[in-house]
Write a structure and sequence with these properties.
single chain; alpha/beta; eight-stranded parallel β-sheet; about 15% strand; globular
């Protein structure tokens, strides 16, 4: 891996001790040690996904495996949302802290009840949210940064449908803590745009999903490369629990059932996590529903994580120094 000759220093990099203002989003079944270790080694912030692992013991083992791959900072995503399987979030939380992890990304619920515990143990918290009102609550609760998802994102974009071009600067205007832009970011142009909008970095999920180290079948990566920005569905809209997923026969059937007034039990067999996990394991993009963002329309290759991060940082610096500066013309 070639080390970038220039770096972009922001409040995010300074606060969390990473080299580059890039974070890898938490992705269930994907945020494992091989990807997280590669992201951390590249100088970005990698995130294990706690709900990927069946038990707290499995999570602790995965944290140990990341440390065998890198000595650089990384974190763990802990999302608290309704689940089809029982999840002991308290046990996962304690495991993360006991394992010495110093960065946690919270999502899905107000982090306020746990902030004293995290800070007492020297843990810095990034809260993932989809609206400014929730970001403000997280700031009041004492989180160290927020990652705010625009409507373009994979997974849960919220119910307000505000794209990042508006959501990000609006959030920056009202928040004092560092803000990361999420949803639709995949390259140097996106990073520069986010910085121009006032963000302190970007959070990428789909782009890291399509890298050599992502622990999913190569066929799924090729499927992302072949897709366009139009190839997603908004699942669970009538239930006000919207999730952006890849457009396939399974997702379209579920959308159609819910659209005509169906209830969740009617689609549960279509959207369960076992089928989604099978997509990544078997390489069949039609096996179940799986999350992907509009950024897939910007992805045309499957690089190593190191090459991806280096390219984004170097090209971003060049864009700032040359292309944008060349637009400035002295007045008469």
């Amino acid at each position: 891996m070639t080390t970038p000759s220039r770096r972009l220093s922001t409040r995010f990099t300074e606060t969390f001790g990473v080299e580059h203002p890039i974070m890898q989003g938490g992705m269930q079944w994907v945020g494992k040690s091989e990807l997280v270790g590669a992201v951390a080694e590249a100088g970005a912030l990698g995130m294990l996904t706690a709900l990927t692992f069946s038990t707290p013991e499995d999570l602790a083992l995965e944290i140990k495996q990341v440390r065998e791959r890198t000595d650089k900072p990384f974190g763990v995503n802990l999302t608290i949302l309704p689940s089809m399987r029982p999840v002991n979030h308290d046990a996962l939380r304690k495991t993360i802290v006991a394992s010495g992890v110093k960065i946690i990304e919270t999502a899905g619920a107000n982090p306020a009840p746990y902030m004293q515990y995290f800070h007492d143990n020297g843990v810095k918290v990034i809260h993932k949210c989809t609206s400014i009102r929730h970001a403000l609550k997280a700031q009041d609760a004492g989180v160290d940064a927020v990652s705010i998802d625009g409507f373009e994102c994979a997974g849960h974009p919220g119910e307000d449908d505000i794209p990042g071009l508006v959501l990000l600067p609006a959030a920056v205007n009202q928040l004092e803590i560092p803000v990361l832009g999420a949803g639709g970011f995949a390259d140097a142009r996106g990073l520069v745009a986010a910085l121009a909008l006032g963000a302190q970095g970007i959070n990428m999920g789909t782009r890291f999903l399509c890298t050599q180290e992502a622990p999913i079948h190569h066929n799924i990566k090729e499927s992302i490369v072949a897709a366009t920005e139009r190839d997603t569905e908004l699942l669970f809209r009538p239930l006000r629990n919207t999730s952006r997923v890849r457009s396939n026969a399974v997702a379209r059937e579920a959308v159609e059932i819910l659209g005509r007034g169906g209830e969740f039990p009617e689609v549960q067999h279509l959207v369960n996590g076992v089928r989604g996990r099978a997509v990544y394991e078997t390489g069949d993009p039609e096996a179940g529903v799986w999350s992907v963002g509009l950024a897939q329309g910007l992805i045309h290759d499957i690089p190593s994580v190191g090459h991806l991060v280096t390219t984004i940082v170097c090209e971003a610096a060049a864009l700032i120094e040359t292309q944008l500066r060349s637009l400035i013309v002295d007045g008469v």
